[in-house]
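the two lines:
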Amino acid sequence: MSLLNTSRKHPVIYALALAILFVLATSVGSLAPSGSWQRAGSINFALGLCLLGAFAVSRLLAQIRIPWITGYILAGIALGPHGLAFLDRSMVADLKLIDDLAIGLIGLMAGAYLKTNELVGKGRIITLTTFFQTSLVFFSTTGFIILSAGLFSFTKLLPSSHVLALAVFAGGLAATCSPMSAIAIISECRAKGPFTTTTLGVVVVLDILVIVLFGAITVLAKSILWPQSAVDWLSVGLLLGEVMASIGLGFFLGQMVILFAGRGVKNMALFLLAGVFAVSKTAWWLEQASSLHLGAPFHIEPLLLCLGAGFWVQNRSEFGELFMANIKQFALPVFLLFFTMAGASLDLSVAAIAWPLALCIFAVRAAGIFGANKLAWRIVGGPALHSKNAWMAYITQAGVTIGLSQVIVRQVPEIGILVAPLIMCVVAANELIGPLAHKVALERTGEANSEG
Amino acid sequence: MKILFALFVILFLTFAGYHFSFRKVKVGFFSKGLWLTGNEYLLVGLALGSWGLNLLDADTIKALTPLSALVLGWAGMVCGFQFEISKLKRMRLPYLWAALVSGLVCMAITAACCYIFLPLFPGLETLASPGAILALAAAAACTAPTGLALVAEKALAAKREAITLLRHIAALDGALPLLIYALAFTAMPLAAGSQAEPGISALLAGGAALGLIIVLFAVFLAVRPPQSELLLVVMGMIVLTSGTASLTGFSPLAANFLLGFLLVNTSSAKERIYQMLFSVEKPAYLLLLIFLGALWSLLPLWLFAGALVFLLARLSGKVTGLFAATKLLPLPEKTGASLGLGLLGQGGLGLAIMLEFALKHPHSTGPLALGVILGATIFADLFGPGFLRRIFYREPRP
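prediction for all of em together
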């Protein structure tokens, strides 16, 4: 029996669990900690509350077919500083350590899902979908913001150069997807099949492409804002180098995993956990060292690196299944904490000013994705069920999008302070609707619950 | 990022150490006492801490709070799981009483000796505080079964009753001292400005919260969650229990012990939970040792003298405790007082008590008490196997 079916039987139990957690949180959690011992206790209490609260919320919402990760995000919003405030900002920051772990493990899992033998024959649809989606979503979002700037209070008073730069950045970020959410939904639904492989392939390729294109978008926006300045092609080249290096190092890590597995040593899960932390550390060290000695930060993307490692192990050895089984041991707590923290981190106060424009961007983006997929599937041909539902798999946005918006804040602060809250609102909408849409797509294509 | 690196190093060493210490290495009997108990990880922790690379400094350890809480909670829960009433009923009653008597006598003697002698050493005066004395005494009462497990293979046939007795004592002697320590813990003053109150209030608040947590656990287990969800529920319950206990002024270790005790006696999922806890036993134990090593203070140098005093006090307590038990109880085999020498190995529960104490008092008595007990643990693991050999391998006098 599947996990989903199991949880459907127990709504009262999960509601009761939530009621008990609420009583605990309002009584014990309201004790103001003093001293390091009690502060440590409050962090542990918050962590326990997150684990159990988000678990119960997600299983309760599963009764009305809402995906678990939407449940985790909603639980995070409810527990976070903008909800019941059981988690304050400092606690959310203290628990951020989980993000690094989660991103690496999700990358490993995403890579391991990509099996070359299953991707054979899907190259065309993946390429076309990626191409149309990137261009259509980028141009439709950018065009919409430019044309409607006078209608929204958020953009009405901005000079035209700022509107143009904002539109270019927002368009670029709108093209991103969330590999983390895609993997979480696929894992939750135990989905397997050609539709799953194709959509995952698109999400991964799209993620790599957008990271590469982001350099070009930044150059374009800067040239709009400061037409006299020289175009910084070096940054574009550096970004390309970073992507290549990340994937290359990922293959190297994958080979290390194969060597490790080949020695017949048990407890691969612990080795992978340590490996993921090593990746984060290496990325940080390389960035610091290159800043210090070369004058420019060279950033290795942990998600891409781990993705490369997972891909390598899955396709270059016989340990793919063992590798996947070991990662899955951690999948549930890691996904739960990652998305609960993502929910708690959402700054809902910015929604008050940016939500009208954000909702329109959400709609325009969804329309762009729909059109791109229709076009791609029409050219390639294929099952009608796939062509009809594919667009729903690409709605979700999460960490990569928010991360890139923070890069804009650092590199172009004049526009960054506008882009970040706007994108946060768009991501919030996509995070809530996207997983549900993806789950529906997997169910309609009959690939949910088909993995062993 | 330093925290991240520290966590990476810890996890890597835990993983590597698990294989190195428990799977790969074949060593002689004497060195097994040092090696297979994972003592090298105390030294690794020391090297990672402020006395070495300073990767695990106070701030980093603070940031790794959820991990240390998980380890402490795991230790408490595993210990609580050993007290399954239906299994205890199958045990010979004198053995059970022997474990309780032995633990209490050892605790009392160690407490008295530490109270009298430790303040005599320069820099160790603060160890005479009631909290530190009780923590040291409770830790002293806990015995490691490792040495007994190693010696048993050859001597089982000849000294079956004696080994069985020692094994039962090693498994159970820490329970009462832990509960006494936990009661004292609630009386320890909290930081200024705390809303939680020590003493009876802490006990009541902690008890009420623990009651709610047990109901919560029962509610989650009622859906018979699959293995992956059970892992999440158990992890969540352990950290929630630890957090609740800390906030209400109760001992997280004891709270998890009680949780484990109640679970093993009431839950139908006890076997599944125990298998889960047991599957991470060795890595979790090594993590505990690394944390202890990182918090280990080597100064003042009188700590080593304090460690020897503690060891002697503990040894006296073990010998006297077992002697008292053999005199008071109808044990199947009348054993000599020297049998108590076989209980010298320092148990993981005792070390967990000291980790909790050191984390609660990081700037005062915690590091000193930890220095005393860790020094004594190294000494005990050096001499312990020799004592065991003396008891079990020496030919009886004609």
